[in-house]
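Entry:
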Amino acid sequence: MNTEPPAAAPWWASAVVYQIYPRSFQDSDGDGIGDLQGIRQRVDYLAELGVDVVWLSPVYRSPQDDNGYDISDYQDIDPLFGTLDDLDQLTSALHERGIKVVMDLVVNHTSHKHRWFTESRSAKDSPRRDWYWWRPGRDGMEPGAPGGEPTNWGSLFSGPAWEYDEATGEYYLHLFSREQPDLNWENPAVREAIYAMMRWWLDRGIDGFRMDVINFISKNVRADGSLPDGPVVSGPYGDPAQGTINGPRVHEFLQEMQREVFAGHRDAVLLVGETPGTTVEDGLLFSDRRRSELDMVFTFEHVSLDQGPGGKFDRKPLDLLDLKATLGRWQTGLADSGWNALYWDNHDQPRIVSRYGDDGRYRVESATMLATVLHLHRGTPYVYQGEELAMTNAHFTSFDCYRDIESLRYVAQSRELGHLTDDQILASLAEVSRDNARTPVQWDRSANAGFTTGKPWIAVNPNYITINAAAQRAARGSVFQYYRRLIMLRHADPVVQRGDFTMLLPDHPHVYAFSRSLNGTRLLVLGNFSGHDQQADLGQSLGDRTELVIGNYRVPASTFGASINLQPWEALVIREPG
């Protein structure tokens, strides 16, 4: 039984983080693109919701090839979003309301227009040549020809992961877009430049960093400087994972970052790593505070369970048993000394109510059930903008509606291969395109959902007439009000913050059940992942002093006995006092 004293829990154990994708949050100047002053206009909304931290997706100066994840200047704000003074004003406004500010940090790669890369590609003898991964072509192959790349790696955004530079006769590595060359963290000068930039942001009052694909920074480089080919799973390219994910020096680099950047700040800041391909064992190494690396990590396993063998755009139905096994494994594996970052939605994922819920008849019920199950796990919950309103996928029906580089390259590659019809490609995009998360926040029922007075950079979901913040803030039983209750529960309840986790009914195909326990008090959490009534047979009677902590139906369908009946998409949290 967990008898951990309250003093042992860090501040973020009782916190909830809210992610803002600035381009789609609120436009203040009518250009159709969200900006920093627009966010500032909505700080009271964030305070009303009750969140403790705001994470800003990138607002740095950028050519916007990947919507800001291609940074050309780490110490300036892109004019699309405003100025450094605008950011200072926003930070002050949030701090005045007790809300911390976390910046998105993208240091696996830069933009190809960053001055570091411009200098690096200028000549083979450039002092910054070794700041990026430059390599000659494969022996015996014509430089620049297909198959001549230094390795067979495929880019995560389609095509090869190497781009040939005719001026210098070598290739540079880009695991993402060709406009996003990978930095060479093996070079100490690169690391010191990054650390200096991070210290500069802390000095400006920023409270931490969300670190984009931070487990990619160490490549599996051989003694002769070469990189290994990857296995070809599907398509013409090899999988780069073995040479790029959780490389041999990644923990060394993060521990060095702690010493060089966060000395004197450690307990006040929040450091969360996006770590694709990371196992529970890796996650424990990253988030064990005794190792001084990260506070918590984002795992991708639970948002990959509906992917078929063909990858992200190859869909299959979610098996709830897989979801329980995956999340349960992470809860157990990080229980003693690690920490989970809990999320359903973010800027790269389709809307969870459309994905794992029911965005039609049971939109409200399924959204609040999903929120309950997530927020009652052990870890720090993350709410992505609009999730608290149960915003849905966009359901676009035309290629012209899409803006995301990953989606557009998927279309081009699929058409080139010729295996799918346009209707099939559109159906895949409608389910999983990142643009589903990037439609503007639906503030009210006025034109463009109150997001802009101009033409929005991407279409507003037409269901904003009925799904919007203004309506939900005024409605007692709304999804927004339910999220407020969940956030208040985490703030107030030590069992939610620090309690042990025990999975229950692991083989039930439709009910997600677990308990959280601390000092003799137990919370029983039940979620029905279906549109039909379900029976949860717990195998033992609950005590006679049980009470309902929170539920998403006005009246539960069942008394709290050894067997509990759950209505469609119902969630229940029941307390058994010690």
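The CA atoms of residues 9 and 239 lie 39 Å apart.
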